[in-house]
Design goal:
Largest sheet: 3 strands, antiparallel
Strand content: 5-15%
Number of strands: 7
């Protein structure tokens, strides 16, 4: 009796083989003879092929399919393997559509499909969960050279921005800082204190308003695809209700958070921010600091407070 791989629950949306999907049977000549890892590697290479297997131009590949897959009374080995090859692309494409809805909207169906195809060929899945499927899309898009010139900047930023929502959703849980500890710090010690920022908080200096595109798409709107450059600072974080949010930041707030995140003591961080502000903004920095810290505490962004080691 041939070994069988259990099929997934849902049938593919389309298939180049007009047949009911059923378990793929491995060729009897390989039962107990081919190491499982080698069998998985050979089948994996065939199933990750974008073009249909039934039209595979390589005689060696066709022979491999016939050797690995037995077929049945209704389907040839090539037809049976083709169902699973088709499903590989459909399922992974649809998963990336779900995780990057704004990017797929911005690019349009054809360009997003081309991006997905190139990404899956260059970065095949290496995790058992679809949650991890798109984790390398941001870095891949950064060097992907098939974007149109006017779309390259917004698309790369949007890929990284949408990816932040995936990471933030199940980032490690860290207990927020007890505000009582803050009240106990003497005023003279504050310049030397270091504040830890929650790991699920991600900071962005966006050259294009891609955060607005994402928000509009999620609300079912059809925003403008041609984006004018407009520098915006944005934070993405997971709140106590386990919902991931984003909000714009003031330039000074973004600079201070970025400095604190790398361990800069509060006094030095504030001094660095003040140097970059206009004189009117410098006069308002004290009041802004108070508002920012209150907001950070309310959002659970602060997780630790300690004194920087003496130099």
């Amino acid at each position: 009796m041939s070994a069988q791989l259990d099929p997934s629950v849902n049938a593919p949306l389309t298939s180049s083989v007009n047949a009911q999907r059923e378990p793929i049977a491995l060729g009897p000549s390989h039962e107990g003879a081919l190491p499982l890892a080698e069998l998985q590697r050979e089948l994996g290479e065939l199933l990750r092929r974008f073009e249909p297997l039934v039209d595979h131009p390589s005689a060696a590949a066709r022979a491999t399919i016939a050797r690995l897959v037995s077929g049945n009374e209704r389907l040839s080995p090539h037809e049976q393997a083709e169902i699973y090859r088709d499903q590989f692309w459909l399922r992974h494409r649809d998963s990336l559509y779900e995780d990057f809805p704004a990017l797929s909207y911005l690019l349009g169906a054809d360009s997003f499909e081309a991006l997905v195809r190139a990404y899956l060929l260059a970065c095949p899945p290496d995790s058992w969960t679809l949650r991890d499927l798109g984790l390398r899309l941001g870095s891949f898009a950064a060097s992907y050279d098939a974007f149109s010139p006017e779309m390259a900047g917004p698309a790369r930023e949007l890929a990284a921005f949408e990816l932040a929502f995936i990471r933030a959703f199940d980032a490690a849980e860290v207990t927020p800082l007890d505000v009582g500890r803050v009240a106990m710090v003497p005023a003279t010690e504050w310049p030397n204190m270091r504040l830890g920022i929650h790991p699920h908080v991600e900071l962005f200096a966006l050259e294009f308003p891609v955060h607005e595109v994402r928000a509009a798409v999620r609300e079912g709107q059809t925003p403008e695809r041609q984006l004018a450059a407009s520098l915006t600072f944005v934070a993405v974080w997971r709140a106590a209700d386990r919902v991931v949010y984003h909000r714009p930041l003031a330039a000074g707030e973004y600079a201070l958070l970025s400095s604190l995140r790398v361990g800069t003591p509060l006094g030095a961080a504030c001094g660095s921010v003040a140097e970059k502000l206009t004189e009117p903004d410098q006069r308002e920095l004290g009041a802004n600091l108070r508002r920012w810290f209150e907001r950070w505490a309310q959002c659970g962004w602060l997780v630790s407070l300690d004194a920087a080691p003496a130099s």
